[in-house]
UniProtKB/TrEMBL annotation, chain A:
Lineage, highest ranks first: Bacteria, Bacillati, Actinomycetota, Actinomycetes, Kitasatosporales
Name listed for the protein in its UniProt record: ABC transporter permease
Biased composition (Low complexity): 1-16
Domain of life: Bacteria
Listed transmembrane segments: 35-60, 91-117, 129-151, 163-185, 259-279
Similarity section: Belongs to the binding-protein-dependent transport system permease family.
ABC transmembrane type-1 domain segment(s): 91-279
UniProtKB/TrEMBL annotation, chain B:
Transmembrane regions: 38-61, 88-112, 124-148, 168-189, 229-252, 272-294
Protein name, per record: ABC transporter permease
Lineage: superkingdom: Bacteria
PANTHER family per UniProt: ABC TRANSPORTER PERMEASE PROTEIN (PTHR42929:SF5), INNER MEMBRANE ABC TRANSPORTER PERMEASE PROTEIN YDCU-RELATED-RELATED (PTHR42929)
Keywords noted in UniProt: Cell membrane, Membrane, Transmembrane, Transmembrane helix, Transport
Organism: Streptomyces yatensis
Length: 295, 307
């Protein structure tokens, strides 16, 4: 075997007609391929970030219409937001419902996750199945189903009905995250703690809970974002005088499109960014969506 | 997920076992009473039963009723008997297929690229990949509205080189671009998982036996990442055909898709039974399609690729 010294520009990796005696080397072809890969990845990154960048940029324009690139820079549209109490009301409603959904779905997710993970009980496999199929049902269909169901029950729209509706979107995720966290917990650690005399609550507090702390926080923030951004379900549950922020924007944009909306959008992006940084710090964002093909 | 694949616990530690050891609390024993499990799970079960199962049953029940509440099959005969609605169904599936294909074409090279990066770079790129899912759908869609619009940067680019900019808004193009943008993460993440599971020694081994880079890619990487492709495609397809917001904003009323009609029938026409029927048709069709697709590919995407 001749070791390759092919680093000159003229050398392509093709040894003349030599079969079976190819040097395994990092040649020019390899480098070109790497460069190509990086360029491609950069393009994909641009594609992914473009709408956000456009939204942020056009919220700073001095024109009274949305344009990109923005003409001049101003924070006028953010000031304008303060003159629109309906946006603030919607924001507060959205935040309140989202916070509630986050807390409740975290608690439910932890309880259900523990139950599925370690207790045999009737209907357990059905429950597991339903949890994994819950997000296969189209949200729009769920929305109209809830609309008709609430009407049947005679429940008027309120922040509570909205919160309950959002639980269907968030609980399956929190359960999944908790289960993933518990799968990584070695049972013998709990048994050891118990064997050393720890009481059940102590075992739970000092051994079990730390193992799922990351997934719980991630699940809570995921639920927060999901509920805060939901439009599909909210469209069916809201009323004219109770509109979440996405619904408010959606309706506002039916008739006018000025930079106020992009300012609101930017505020929402910042809000999501903070949440993501927290999730990333705690568990890593990729865990949220890690669909395992080997299910 | 991995909930079912649990390692069988060792010998059951019953509280009355082994005299010297302190009592092992019931909570920690493997075979805790089923009541505890049911109690813990009950709030989640209640939520699912009352807010997921019940509304879906309500929906199916209503879809077989007239607006006055009498039993009827008319909602379904109307949908299936009208070529307009049949076209809507086909068009929905078509957009779903295009989006899935687009995600594969963009996502596969991206996943392969990610495979060779350092953990840190992967983390940052994953964040970029997930960013569309973490910003408001409304914001996202209107960002595309500006980008694809007749005065947007893409149109400007066409004008700069002296070309007529194609119509990129309120048509299938806009919807597919917007959908690929949202769905890319759902394709890439399973692909990454699949690619990571490939034994890193395989490619050098093949190269040592004289295979070229392309041969390695087509004969090793692609077949072994089929499970990831399958999972990603299933998720992307089923989420796309049921998406409402992005197609509604980017496609407008001219791009007629099933979720849009579910919405308009329910809110504008106030025909709940018909909206329910359309929604139920959507569920049934996507379920059948994804089941068939999974069945067709499962045999080929398994571990016996080299058979």
């Amino acid at each position: 075997m001749n070791t390759a010294k092919a680093t000159t520009a003229s050398a392509t990796n093709e040894a003349a007609g030599g079969a079976g005696d190819k040097p395994v080397a990092v040649g020019v072809g390899e480098r070109a391929r790497r460069l190509l890969g990086a360029a491609f990845a950069a393009l994909v990154g641009l594609f992914l970030l473009a709408p956000v960048l456009v939204t942020i940029a056009s919220s700073l324009t001095t024109t009274s219409y949305v344009t990109f690139p923005p003409k001049g820079l101003t924070l006028h549209w953010y000031a304008e937001l303060l003159n629109r109490p309906e946006f603030l009301d919607s924001f507060l409603l959205s935040i309140g419902v989202a916070a509630g959904a986050a807390v409740v779905s975290t608690a439910l997710g932890l309880a259900a996750g523990l139950a599925i993970h370690r207790y045999p009980f009737p209907g357990k496999s059905v429950l597991d199945r339903v949890f994994s199929s819950a997000f296969a049902v189209p949200t729009i269909v769920l929305g109209i189903g809830l609309l008709q169901w609430y009407a049947q029950l005679g429940m008027a729209s309120s922040p509570l009905t909205l919160l309950l509706a959002h639980l269907v979107l968030t609980v399956p995720y929190t359960v999944r995250l908790v289960l993933a966290g518990l799968a990584g917990l070695d049972r013998s650690a709990e048994l050891a703690a118990a064997g050393l005399g720890a009481k059940a609550p102590q075992v739970f507090w000092h051994v079990t809970l730390p193992a799922v702390r990351g997934p719980l926080i991630a699940g809570a923030f995921f639920a927060l974002i999901t509920s805060f951004d939901d439009l599909t379900i909210a469209l069916f549950v809201v009323t004219t005088d109770m509109q979440t922020l996405p619904v408010r924007i959606f309706n506002y944009l039916q008739y006018n499109y000025d930079p106020t909306v992009t300012a609101v959008g930017t505020v929402m992006v910042l809000f999501a960014a903070v949440a993501v940084v927290i999730i990333e710090r705690v568990v890593g964002v990729a865990h949220l969506f890690g669909a395992d093909p080997e299910r | 997920m991995a909930a079912t694949a649990r390692i069988a616990d060792g010998p059951a530690l019953r509280p009355d076992d082994s005299a010297p050891a302190p009592k092992v609390p019931r909570q920690v024993t493997a075979r805790g009473p089923w009541r505890t499990g049911l109690l813990l799970a009950s709030p989640a079960i209640a939520v699912l039963a009352l807010l997921f199962i019940a509304p879906l049953f309500m929906l199916v029940y209503n879809s077989f009723r007239t607006q006055a509440g009498d039993p009827t099959l008319r909602n379904y005969t109307r949908f299936l008997g009208d070529s307009f609605y049949r076209d809507v169904l086909w068009h929905t599936l078509w957009i779903g297929a295009l989006t899935t294909l687009g995600c594969l074409v963009v996502g596969y090279p991206f996943a392969v690229y990610l495979r060779g990066r350092s953990p840190r770079a992967r983390n940052y790129l994953s964040l970029v990949l997930l960013s569309p899912l973490l910003i408001s759908m409304v914001t996202r869609a209107y960002g595309w509205l500006v980008l694809l619009g007749p005065k947007g940067p893409i149109a400007d680019g066409f004008h700069a080189v002296g070309l007529e900019a194609p119509k990129m808004l309120y048509n299938d193009t806009a919807v597919v671009v917007g959908m690929v943008h949202v769905m890319l993460a759902y394709m890439v993440l399973p692909l990454m998982g699949s690619l990571d599971r490939i034994d890193p020694a395989l490619t050098p081994a093949a190269k040592g036996l004289g295979a070229s880079g392309w041969t390695c890619f087509w004969r090793i990487t692609v077949p072994l990442s089929l499970p990831g492709m399958l999972a990603g495609s299933l998720i992307v397809f089923s989420l796309t055909v049921s998406s409402f917001v992005t197609p509604a904003i980017l496609g407008g009323p001219t791009v007629k898709l099933m979720p849009y009609f579910v919405y308009t029938e329910a809110t504008s026409n106030l025909n709940w039974p018909y909206a329910a029927a359309i929604g139920f048709v959507l569920i049934v069709v996507t379920t059948i399609l994804t089941a068939v697709y999974a069945r067709l590919l499962r045999g080929r995407g398994g571990k016996e690729v080299f058979a």
